[in-house]
Amino acid sequence: MKQSMTLIPTLREIPSDAEIKSHQLLLRAGYIRQNASGIYSYMPLAKKVLQKVEAIVREEMDRAGAVELLMPALTPAELWQESKRWYSYGPELMRMKDRHDRDFVIGPTHEEVITSLVRDEVKSYKRLPLALYQIQTKFRDEQRPRFGLLRGREFIMKDAYSFHANHESLDEIYTKIFDAYSNVFRRCGLDFRAVIADSGAMGGKDTHEFMVLSDVGEDTIAYSDTSSFAANIEMAPVVVEYEKSNEQEFALEKVKTEGQKTIDEVSTYLNVEPSKCIKSLLFKVDESFVLVLVRGDHEVNDIKVKNLFDATVVELATPEETREIMNCSVGSLGPIQIAENIQVIADHAVKMIVNGVCGANEEDYHYIGVNPDRDFSINPQYADLRFIQVGDPSPDGEGTIVFARGIEVGHVFKLGTRYSEAMNAMFLDENGRNQPMIMGSYGIGVSRTMAAVVEQFNDENGIVWPVDLAPYKVHVIPVNNKNDSQRSLAENIYDQLQNNGIDVLFDDRAERPGVKFADSDLIGIPVRITVGKRAEEGIVELKVRSNGETLEVNTENLIETIRSFIVK
Ligand code: 9G3
User: Fold this and answer.
1) Do strands 103-106 and 39-42 pair parallel, antiparallel, or not at all (unpaired)?
2) 106 membership: H or E segment, kind and range
3) Which residue range(s) make up the domain with 319?
4) Is residue 43 in a domain?
5) Using omega within 30 degrees of 0 as the cis cutoff, is the peptide bond preceding 380 cis?
6) Domain assignment of residue 418, yes or no
7) Which residues of 538-557 are buried (b: 16+ CB within 10 A; e: fewer)?
8) pLDDT for the residue 381
9) Which residue, judged by its Cα, is nearest atom 15 of ligand 1?
10) Which runs of consecutive H residues, i.e. helices, occur in 368-480?
11) Going by CA atoms, what residue is nearest to atom 23 of ligand 1?
């Protein structure tokens, strides 16, 4: 491809509204242009990279036994009313009316559509399992689109759905697609972790997110420094074995703690370690109030509280609710002598506290000499209720926990019958009984993956594409366009490369050399061939973008030298 023929609008300056590297570089190197907030055009170079990512995704999904189809972006509201999601989603769900005033959803994901398709066509266990996927543009009206392609309102997703007669079959396909995802992200050169994730609103069990480690990631991952254990911070179980100190138990005593509210204030004022303080927080769990206790140096994990009660809504009680229910402010809450109807749950660590401190449920008073079991009872139970912390032992028993931020590029779910029951997607099992199909759903953010690669592969001069994803493999640059020998040799090399099936970009612009080289570094093509002064001698310069390695090459063996850099 000749640069005078294509459109690569590079920018010198960093666009002010681009906060992260990938957003800045994709704009500056002419890969994307914004049409509206969270809505982008993929310029020619980005389109080529997307094709490479999609080709890898297709190869791996086909190998896993899934079959590609393509569903409509416009989907009748009736399907979403059947699944009830028409009523549960808010402004993020893009809706429209057609010319006959009929309601439509502009698809953010396609569980409803695929389930309606399969229910109409599949009736017997003999036709299962079935795994179908598509690569399609999705629409989600994000409140705050940001970070370029990482959180857009229109983006490209590979979404797959599988249908099964039993859970063993789902487990089998889930594992195959899980492995396919690992292959995809490895082939994209990404440093990723498969993370145990909360099933969240999808209502399934067993779900994993594929997270690319990156400081700009929106999620926090807890992972082991030596094993493959990794979990979303909300889901990471805590497996610490706490010891109870054998110090003499003191008597319970109420003390005045004028104006001391937070754990830090109280522990400093009473000269007691935070780990001997009991942090009591009143939560509203669905319609009831629950007092949650954790050790003073830990944090309550509200997702674990939600999962313990299998609740829909869990949130901190407001200060007004707290005062109304507990007759004191948040800073004086404690588990001793509280109303019978308030449930009290506590993290396992609380059980081991000896002669601790807790609020007295009286303004500006705390108890000291607090000994759980003697001074208060836990009902219904002790549980794992705290957030995992850096330094905790890894739940798989290997290594210690470290934190990282991650960009979610993939997500796989065991959905169960959430959609097949709601939409009556039934099949006759081998005993002739009508059963709801068991489903899985699997997504890869294709455009987000491209941006994640740029986040991970760049340097001070621009993008540094992994060879398999680069829009072109070789960038041929004649230094001086007016010099016939340079130009003709460059043209000749360009033709040779094309005849050898090597994707090549040719900079035939009448620009100063400095501009050409700066643009070449920005665009990030793996191998650059500079045709300069030594063209007459048949010598050109080859530069490797990833490590700056530069060598003089005789045009005789240019092709095999280039191949050595672009073929694994
Ligand atoms: C919506 C809107 C936004 C959404 C969803 C529905 C996320 C929604 C979760 C999924 C689950 C899987 C198939 C591919 C893999 C992920 N945001 N999710 O369901 F209506 Cl507005 O999309 N879907």
Assistant:
1) unpaired
2) strand 103-106
3) 253-383
4) no
5) yes
6) yes
7) ebbbbbebeeeeeeebebee
8) 87
9) 443
10) 418-422, 446-456
11) 109
Tell me the best of 109, 134, 441 to mutate to test the pocket of ligand 1, counting ligand atoms within 8 Å of each CB and taking the most: 109
| Across 134-148, 231-245, 347-361, least confident range | 231-245
Whether residues 231 and 259 share a domain: the answer is: no
The whole-angstrom separation of Cα 300 and Cα 322 is 17
User: 552 pairs with which residues across the strands?
Assistant: 541
User: Could you report how far apart the first and last alpha carbons of the chain are, in Å?
Assistant: 23
* Domain identity same for 89 and 182: yes
- Sequence-distant contacts of 389-397: CB under 8 A, at least 24 apart: 389/298, 392/222, 392/238, 392/239, 392/240, 393/239, 393/240, 394/223, 394/224, 394/225, 394/226, 394/227, 394/229, 395/229, 395/231, 395/236, 395/237, 395/238, 395/239, 396/224, 396/227, 396/229, 397/239
The reply to whether 344 and 284 lie within a common domain is yes
Which residues does 199 contact at the CB level (< 8 Å), separation at least 6?
A: 205, 206, 207, 413
Identify the pLDDT of residue 234.
Answer: 87
Residue whose CA lies nearest to ligand 1 atom number 10: 109
CATH of the domain at 524: 3.40.50.800
- Residue 133 β-bridge partners: 68, 160
- How far apart CA 136 and CA 538 sit, in angstroms, is 47
Q: Is the CB of 443 under 6 A from ligand 1?
A: yes
List the structure tokens of 476: 């041929």
Distance CA 440, CA 132 (A): 10
Closest CA to 198 of 234, 237, 161, 159: 234
Q: Is any atom of ligand 1 closer than 6 Å to the C-beta of 234?
A: no
Interval 14-24: pLDDT, tens: 999 999 999 99
Whose CA is closest to 404, among 223, 206, 228, 258?
A: 223
What number of residues does the chain have? 568
The order of strands in the sheet holding 504-506 is 504-506, 474-478, 527-531, 539-544, 550-554
Q: Domain for residue 335, yes or no?
A: yes
> Could you identify the atom of ligand 1 that is nearest to the CA of residue 85?
20
Dihedral angle over CA of 209, 214, 219, 225, nearest 10? 70
CATH number of the domain to which 301 belongs:
3.90.960.10
Residue 522 to residue 551: CA distance in whole angstroms: 20
- pTM: predicted TM-score of the whole model, two decimal places: 0.89
Regarding the beta carbon of 89 and ligand 1, being less than 6 Å apart is answered yes
Find the mean pLDDT for residues 174-190: 98
